[in-house]
Amino acid sequence: MRTRHCYLLGMVWGIVLAGAPGMAGRAAGAEPAAGPTKASRQPRLGVPAKRPADGKLRIVVFGAHPDDAEIRAGGTAALWAARGHHVLLVSVTNGDVGHSQVFGPALAARRKAEAEAAAKILGTASRILDVHDGELEPTLDNRRKITRAIRDWSADVVIGHRPNDYHPDHRYVGVLMQDSAYMVTVPFFCPETPYLTANPAFLYSYDGFERPNPFRPDVVVAIDEAIDKKVEALVGMESQFVEGGANGPVPKTDAERAERRVLVAEGFRSRFASIANRYRGKLIELYGEEQGKQVRYAEAFEICEYGRRPNRDELRRLFPFLPK
Ligand SMILES: [Zn+2]
């Protein structure tokens, strides 16, 4: 009995050790174990990020799919870019099920090309993470991915979906952004990626969902100056808007396609006009009575509680197109 007991105990310990990070059989792509002993052997772990010294802001906008960051913040991104600031639009999934007739690598490649073309129009950089569309989960591995993306860009501002949204991928981008909002500053979390010494400001992009709490606009940005670029960038993402994305229908003729492009452009203009009208009071508060009343198109953002909480002056530094 004693021998059998020891044998069983040994098996249990074997399983426990195999499951412990850094103890045995580390999964492909997982982080190396961090700790004082390991760190002292590898002095490059857990070092602070060196920030580019050009005096410009650095912004990351996360969307779940290749079009979300462009829809939610493409105008504001273009305003930053036009002033020399560095904006990265990230799609956390590759969009490979977002069409009614094509899927998989062929669709992912098409959507990557569409995102890159949009970025060129907006003056931003574009990045697509290697996660299947419709399958994003708020896992530890994905928390690391988002944390590294924010650190790699040395972000001052991070924007993403709220965790209340109809689409599970959108929701989990929100959760993952929140989960990274402190961890980006922790030296020995993802220790091989230099950590940020200043926590960025994290903001949610606009949505119309009401439960459990509606979107609250802390920053509403007039995008009149950038609306043509934004609409051009979005209409160019034909797989989603002209061809109807996951639910179609795909236009059958060239004439139908041309007609659809016009309708899509009009639809987007009225969508961003409705944000300006909905938050007119906030526009007047931020831009003053005269200018605030004249704004035609807007994007709106809500400050997340978990990152840096910018005060009024800092908000105007981070959104330098707001009047002083
Ligand atoms: Zn989406």
What's the gist of this structure?
With 324 residues, this protein is α/β, with parallel strands linked by helices. Helices cover 44% and strands 11% of the residues. It has helices at residues 2-19, 36-41, 68-82, 105-122, 140-152, 168-183, 227-235, 254-278, 280-287, 289-294, 312-318; strands at 58-63, 86-91, 125-128, 157-160, 201-205, 219-222, 298-303.
Please outline the helices and strands.
Layout: H1 2-19, H2 36-41, E1 58-63, H3 68-82, E2 86-91, H4 105-122, E3 125-128, H5 140-152, E4 157-160, H6 168-183, E5 201-205, E6 219-222, H7 227-235, H8 254-278, H9 280-287, H10 289-294, E7 298-303, H11 312-318
Mind explaining what this structure looks like?
The protein is α/β, with parallel strands linked by helices and 324 residues long. The protein has a single domain, classed as LmbE-like (Rossmann fold), CATH 3.40.50. The protein is built from eleven helices and seven strands. The chain has helices spanning 2-19, 36-41, 68-82, 105-122, 140-152, 168-183, 227-235, 254-278, 280-287, 289-294, 312-318, and strands spanning 58-63, 86-91, 125-128, 157-160, 201-205, 219-222, 298-303. Strands 3-2-1-4-5-7-6 form a seven-stranded mixed beta sheet, sandwiched between helices. The termini are far apart. The relative contact order is 0.14. Bound molecules: zinc ion. Residues 64-65, 68, 167, 170 line the site of zinc ion.
